[in-house]
Amino acid sequence: MSPVTRSSSSPAAKGTPRAYGLGPRVAAVLVFGCSAAVLVVEIAALRLLAPYLGLTLETSTMVIGIALTAIALGSWLGGLIADRVDPRWLIGPSLGVSGVVVALTPAVLRATAEWAPPMLLLLASLTILVPGALLSAVTPIVTKLRLTNLAETGSVVGRLSGVGTVGAIVGTVLTGFVLMSRWPVSGILIGLGTLLVVGSVLIGWRTRTWRGTTALTLALVVGSLAATVAPGGCDTETRYHCVRVVADPDRSGGRVLVLDGLRHSYVDLDDPTHLEFTYVRAIVSVVDTAFPEGAPLSAHHLGGGGLTIPRYLAATRPGTRSAVSEIDGGVARVDRDRLGLRSAPGVTVRVEDGRLGLRRLDAGSRDLVVGDAFGGVSVPWHLTTLEAMADVRRVLDEDGLYVANLIDHGDLAFARAEAATLRATFEHVALIGKPSDIGTAPSGTTPSGTARGGNLVVIASTQPIDLRAAQDALDARQTGWRIATGNDLASWIGDATLLTDDYAPVDQLLQS
Q1: Alpha carbon 294 to chain centroid distance?
Q2: Per-residue pLDDT tens over the stretch 308-321
Q3: Measured between alpha carbons, how far is 476 from 300 in angstroms, rounded to an integer?
Q4: d(CA 168, CA 159)
Q5: For residue 452, what is the DSSP state?
Q6: Would you state the pLDDT for residue 283?
Q7: Which of 140, 204, 232, 502 has the fewest beta carbons closer than 10 A?
């Protein structure tokens, strides 16, 4: 009787998944977990970079582009190397090195931003590209190990591809809805790095390729410790911001709310009528002249920050009802716990998007709408459009007033576009700012040595605005700002494009 020969597709043959200790469930867990981890790193990187690069369309596009590059590069190289090297030696190191890089990322990026800013983009790219590529390489490596029968190629590749996609979805949803709201971004990345290194050790044990894990574990510990002492720490990390509250050494009750490294609000806990920032003094100057002195108002605020203006209205106009749409629940908690929100009568904060907050208001229900919402240094684009302004006009009563804070620089292209958008919505519009900003020609020329840009305030109403009284109030508060309206404003706006829900390139206008 001739001897029986095993088929190369037999589970007992050399090089099968059983020999490698990588069954179908382990393979699915690896692909699922690595795909999820790539998305966690991508979203966390956006959060880490926002204080230094801004939360702009360009920053988001860059991070997404690098992440997609890492996925493509890792998938290609992973498959290429798996055809030339024993795949069982690749999975553990890929997980381990990725874990160490992920755990080191908070310390590396924050230290670089503080001490070597020109290197930030390069290191940020590497901290996304390296773990992203290594983790993405796991899928073709695992697929190589699971392909033991050509008749099952389609089902194996399709199954693992589907598992990877589901993992990416879960990683995205979990990070956005759960992790960011409960833990600081440094804790999320250190935790993820720890899980990856632990996974590396377990895979090394299962496939008998555990050498080198001691060094990876040591690097993980170093990265975790470094993250705790790296510069750029926050008092609180919320879903959207790195939050710090800084005491003013010159005023016992003075507090500055810093979001992502930018001073957003100044609050005096002892005196809510103290207004530190010039743009805030400009806003209240207009409000105080537009309405009878001391009369209570029904106000709605797009963006909360430190609630400086709602506090001022509560103190100077008893009985005022100020409703605030603040998208960041973490900032609202800081207002309550550290900035004295509980002592501000008539101020209520709703954690919601400002555009959605406007939509729920009844027509003609507000005397005043204040726009002071920012993502980084830009007004969220969907609060700048014709459609958004139409909603503002809808909720104002016939004598109502809209006043908004803008930030722009250079040619002030965004401010011009927003002013043009308001002029298309309201009968009466005016712009308030430094003379060097609002008095220049649309071409962007400016007197020699004159700084350009910063805060500007726009006001709009369906009824005439007493601009002479408003200018007197601005002078009394020593703002140094002037008002442009009518033909002067039209000349300043020039041929600026109207902003709509269909076309609002706010980030590009800001950086033009």
Answers
A1: 38
A2: 999 999 999 999 99
A3: 26
A4: 14
A5: -
A6: 97
A7: 502
- Which residues in 68-99 are b (16+ Cβ under 10 Å) and which e? eebbebbbeebeebbeeeebbebbbbbbbbbb
Helix (H) or strand (E) holding 213: helix 213-229
Helices within 54-184 (DSSP H only): 57-82, 91-115, 120-146, 153-174, 180-182
| Alpha carbon distance 95, 199 (integer Å) | 7
pLDDT in tens, 15-48: 443 434 578 898 999 999 999 999 999 999 988 8
* pLDDT of amino acid 223: 56
Within 10 angstroms of residue 293's Cβ, the number of other Cβ atoms is: 8
Give the model confidence (pLDDT) of 150-194 as tens digits: 777 888 889 999 999 999 999 999 998 888 878 888 889 989 998
CA atoms of 132 and 141, how far apart (whole Å): 15
Residue 272 structure tokens:
């809510």
Strands 242-247 vs 236-237: parallel, antiparallel or unpaired: antiparallel
Q: Which amino acid, residue 30?
A: L
Q: pTM of the entire structure?
A: 0.78
Alpha carbon distance 149, 154 (integer Å): 10
Q: Which two three-digit tokens encode residue 398?
A: 């016939």
Do 209 and 90 meet the contact criterion of CB atoms below 8 Å apart?
Answer: no
Three-state secondary-structure class, residue 203: helix
CB 463 within 8 Å of CB 399 = yes
Q: Is 19 left (phi over 0), alpha (psi -120 to 50) or beta?
A: alpha
Position 228 scores a pLDDT of 53
CB count, 10 Å around CB of 182?
Answer: 10
> Is-contact 137 81, C-beta < 8 A?
yes
Sheet containing 242-247: give its strands across.
Answer: 236-237, 242-247, 254-259, 262-268
Is the sign of the CA dihedral 331, 333, 339, 345 positive or negative?
Answer: positive
Among residues 88, 70, 227, the alpha carbon closest in space to that of 135 is found at 70
Cα(221)–Cα(225) distance, integer angstroms: 6
Which residue type sits at 2?
A: S
CA distance 392 to 422: 10
